Amino acid sequence: MIPRLKPPIGREEIQALFSFNPDLIEKLERNFSKTFSTRCAAAFPYGRSALWAFFQAMGIKHAEIIQPAYTCSVVGHATVLSGNIPRFVDINLTDYNMDLELFAEAINERTRAVIPTHIFGYPMNVEKVQEIVRDAENRYGHKIYVVQDCAHSFEAEWKGRSVINYGDAALFGLGISKQITSIFGGVMTTNDPEIAEMLSAWRDTHFREKSWLEKWKRRFYLLASAAAFTGFTYGFTYWLQKNTPLLKRLTDAYHLDEAIHFPPDFDHNLSAPEAAVGIEQLNKYKDFKKKRREIARNYFENLSPPKDWVMPPAVEGATYSHFVIRVPDREQVLKSAAERGVQFGQLIEYSMPHLPAYREYAKGGNFPNSLLASRTTINLPLYPSLTAQDQKKILAQTQKFDKM
Ligand SMILES: *Cc1c(COP(=O)(O)O)cnc(C)c1O
Q: What is the pLDDT of residues 218-270, one digit of tens each?
């Protein structure tokens, strides 16, 4: 079976697992800055921990934080758990990013930060975002922080310039399903040395080191993931996922959409083996980015989907973390493809303001596009190690739906 995702783990990463030098964490930060051309980078145990720490380091509390209604739930969790209030903005149905008109309307005197998310690797119009925020700052007379959520996009470009360097800071997730991984982990970058200093100082006084056991669990997790997602064993992984609660229990420990919750180790710093894996991945990033774009181009050129499927847009500067298609009957499509040996992915199958835990933040708002995306999107396998033959098989699967 062709898995929906495959962490790009090679021999270098496996060897890196057996690193013990704590200086590697600073090395990861330096290399991250260098790879993405930012002045400063701070490493965290998860992306969500970085965002949570950012709000506190900047003294942002009881404030409204503008964010897309259709995004990873950890963004909402970091907002609420740092004592703030998520203010959701519906998305557009073209590239699934925040609707800029609704974004401008949502800003008010309680807004202290906004989170433009470059979802699925699609760059937002960062210039327009800056303009809207500058207007609002003049109107309300206080600073409004702009934190780019680059967890999907990494180095997407808007008009040829990396989105990472717009705004005040940029957030990255380095979990196993991201474009590059440090097993778990997250990074926040900034070009403002003052923000960098406040953020790392806050982290260093409030976070602690992982225990010996926790570090070994991380190593084991990477080895298990590398094994689980190889073509040979993936049939078994898929079976476990479908027929037993085992894998669900494992992932629920780290991630919950139903409740506003952080894992217990959210403030236990990134460890040396995680940093070492991240360093190896950074070395390969430019190559991964190129390969992802090549595969997306192949899909755009050769896919002839059924008429009622809605294709994603081909966008200059996108990095295609996911190749997202809207389909009328998702369950049926996922099931039929799986039966024929291709697993299509399903990501963010919830709309934040529609989740019970977040309903009180919906404020009577309507988020129809977010709801529709949460119910109808699938994504095609797209990762650097996908062979030409795999891609052919995936393309062939999509054609078979015409006759259904
Ligand atoms: C993965 C992700 C994050 C960060 O997630 P962590 O698991 O906390 O590292 C943030 N935003 C989006 C959109 C993401 O997909």
A: 999 999 998 887 766 667 677 777 777 766 666 666 556 678 999 999 999 99
- Mutation test residue for ligand 1: of 152, 221, 319, 321, the one with most atoms within 8 Å of CB: 152
Report residue 186 as tokens: 């997250």
Q: Are strands 161-162 and 157-158 parallel, antiparallel or unpaired?
A: antiparallel
Q: Judging by DSSP bridges, how do beta strands 169-173 and 145-149 pair with one another? A: parallel
CATH T-level topology, domain 1-404: Aspartate Aminotransferase; domain 2 (3.40.640)
| Residue 175 CA, ligand 1 centroid: distance in Å | 8
d(CA 116, CA 327): 26
Structure tokens at 359: 């309903």
pTM score over 0.90:
yes
Ligand 1 neighbourhood includes 47 CB (under 6 angstroms): yes
Count CA atoms within 13 Å of residue 63 on its CB side: 23
Tokens for 374, please give them: 């949460």
